Amino acid sequence: MKLIIPIVLVLCIYLSGSVSAGLEGKSLIIDRKTKTNFIRLHAADFSSLTAFTVCLRTASEETQAYSLLSYATRNSGNELLLWQRSKSQFVLYLSNPVATFSLPEMNALLRHLCVSWESKGGEITVWVNGRRCAQKVGGKGRVVRGSGQFILGQEQDSVGGGFDKKQSFVGEITDVNMWDRVLKPDEIELISQGCYRDGGNIIDWGSTTFTPGGNVVIKDNNDCTF
Q1: What is the CATH number of the domain that holds 27?
Q2: Is residue 67 part of a domain?
Q3: What is the pLDDT of residues 157-215, one digit of tens each?
């Protein structure tokens, strides 16, 4: 006789206004384009950045352009923006677009994406599933100013707002972390494999508090057990 084990999918609806602690083991799911569903990440304070690495896992079948991570300040709605221009074109904004990468087509399969930048030489590196893409140069001498707001699911035209339904994210996003330095290749490889336990010192998916807007669906992703 076969033993049938039921699979239970846990879904949570997070209503706007409530502040919650970290998203360890969770995925953000947005199933339609809207200007009301998003997550505000209460990242660690910083005055300015001359280097960073942002890593995340994401999947989307959306064909219109959308934001993967939006950071806005009073000086710029696109102070730091990870922008998916099309299914195969990724753009890094530092107030203005500074580099465009042609990547393997985004689809329903979760991919791990890391982006690093440093101001001194303007070196920009993108990694997909632990593999490095061609490096580019952009934003040399710039700084990323502090006292801004991080948003997932929407692109900001003003701090914490100015959302456009047409630019909203549809799909799944998880494991968002950000550091104030350029990570080493072996660190990124470990992170892509789910074997790097420490989260970012600016955004830590496991502990950074967040405030949802609209009706955000968050589910257990059960990616990895240590």
Answers
A1: 2.60.120.200
A2: yes
A3: 999 999 999 999 999 999 999 999 999 999 999 999 988 778 999 999 999 999 999 88
The CA angle 113-23-152, to the nearest 5 degrees, is 55
Taking 80 as the threshold, does the pLDDT of residue 126 lie above it?
yes
**pLDDT at site 16:** 56
Arithmetic mean of pLDDT, 51-75:
97
Number of structural domains found in the chain: 1
Could you tell me if residue 194 is inside a domain?
yes
